[in-house]
Design a protein that fits this description.
Blueprint: E1 6-12, E2 15-18, E3 25-26, E4 30-31, E5 55-57, E6 90-94, H1 97-108, H2 112-126, H3 128-152, H4 178-194, H5 202-222, H6 228-245, H7 249-258, H8 262-278, H9 285-310, H10 330-365, H11 373-377, H12 380-409
Antiparallel strand pairs: 1-2, 1-6, 2-5, 3-4
Length: about 400
């Protein structure tokens, strides 16, 4: 496994150490072509594995390999505030800004920021029927992927030699890549569910799914977070899960909408699945991610059930299918952006309010010291209810509260 075309600088306070490596690989394809490359690959001070030529210079504040200046594009990877790992102190400088930003975009297609924009846009502006089914598949794909990680327990690629351009999920295990799983399942499910319901060329949907999947999968290797085997396994695992759940997604959605006790069953089932996932291994960020995915799925299902019960946000009648893409006008585009902006603000405010309410309440109920919030959030009795309830309310607001708000202000 190789990471990106990046140089590494590791900082410890004001002290730095470095050594040159003329055989640094770029993007896993070729060796660095220069005779004396300005590559800085360093070990932390006191590292027993530091090579003999890695001499520490305590008075060094500039890096001589770049003529006494910082390398161009030097940056720090995005860190997770819940982890104590010092991998976040690793600086890097990229040679290709285009590749860095391209694959940063690719990796964001599997992060929370993308989900909180994509799913609401699909439900509020495109097709709620499609959005509900995408979320059902996404929840099961991510849940099974996260649990499989904690069962297999393969570590992330070692750094060095890999240059890690992201350390946000570094505390999680590596096999399979859940980014690759979501980056495979979502575009393929989107194609399978929308083709025939919406009028568009099949080749367009296939190319979009291929580009989406390829970008996400390649980005995880570029970022240094996964090996090729992790990504291939994630891709194949997502295909397997999609093959199982795609024929059942209509049945699951109809159950969520129509069965009288569906909300109670869904909340209990997702909570039980969350408790089970928390017993698989010690704490990592994957446990919290699993709880919030299950909570979001439960909230969306409950909101959908209430919508159906009250006769709100009804799906198009079968005789109106297939749906055609309406001509994009300034008014249509403006309303779509306004709905997205207002709705996402409501979702973010809901998340903030529930987070501030649930963490102290859980600490008080289970008698967990909350002087150090970060450590308190790593306790199962705090993290599970906090994540589950918070994102359950976010999912419920997505499906019920925000559409009601749109109806009230005339944006539905």
């Amino acid at each position: 496994t190789c990471s990106a075309d990046a140089e590494v600088i590791v900082s410890r306070g004001d002290q730095r150490s470095h050594f040159q490596n003329g055989n640094r690989r770029s993007c896993g394809l070729t060796k660095y072509p220069l005779k004396n490359p300005p590559v800085l690959h360093t070990h932390r001070q006191g590292d027993a594995e530091s090579p003999p030529d890695c001499k520490r210079r305590d008075d060094e504040t500039r890096l001589p390999a770049w003529g006494g200046a910082e390398p161009p594009g030097a940056a720090l990877p995005r860190r997770n505030s819940l982890t104590e790992e010092e991998d976040g102190s690793q600086e890097f400088a990229t040679r290709s800004r285009f590749l860095y930003y391209l694959f940063s975009l690719g990796t964001e297609l599997g992060n929370e920021l993308f989900y909180i924009l994509f799913f609401p846009f699909c439900i509020w502006n495109v097709d709620a029927w499609l959005g509900r089914r995408l979320i059902i598949i996404w929840v099961w794909v991510m849940y099974l992927g996260q649990c499989t990680k904690d069962v297999i327990r393969w570590p992330r690629p070692a750094s060095p030699p890999v240059v890690k351009l992201e350390v946000f999920y570094n505390s999680e295990y590596s096999m399979p890549s859940t980014h690759a799983m979501s980056g495979t399942a979502i575009p393929l499910a989107l194609l399978l569910l929308s083709y025939g319901r919406w009028q568009y060329p099949f080749m367009f949907g296939l190319i979009l799914a291929f580009c989406w999947c390829s970008l996400v999968c390649c980005s995880r290797i570029y970022m240094g977070m996964h090996s090729i085997l992790d990504v291939i396994a994630g891709f194949l695992y997502a295909i397997l899960i999609l093959a199982v759940f795609h024929p059942l997604v209509d049945l699951i959605d109809n159950f969520n909408l129509t069965y009288k006790y569906a909300p109670l069953i869904i909340i209990s089932l997702h909570l039980a699945l969350g408790i089970f996932s928390f017993t698989l291994d010690t704490w990592s960020t994957s446990r919290g991610d699993t709880a919030q995915i299950l909570g979001c799925g439960a909230g969306v299902a409950c909101g959908s059930h209430l919508n159906h019960l009250l006769g709100l946000q009804l799906d198009p009648a079968p005789h109106s299918l297939p749906l055609s893409l309406s001509s994009l006008s300034v008014t249509v585009f403006g309303k779509a952006i306004l709905r997205l902006l207002i709705g996402v603000i409501v979702l973010l405010l809901t998340r903030v309010a529930m987070k501030r309410a649930t963490i102290p309440l859980a600490c008080q109920i289970f008698r967990v010291p909350h002087d150090d919030v970060r450590r308190a959030r790593q306790r199962m009795e705090v993290e599970l209810p906090y994540r589950y309830i918070t994102y359950g309310m976010v999912g419920f607001s997505l499906m019920f509260v925000v559409p009601c708000l749109f109806h009230f202000i005339g944006l539905s």
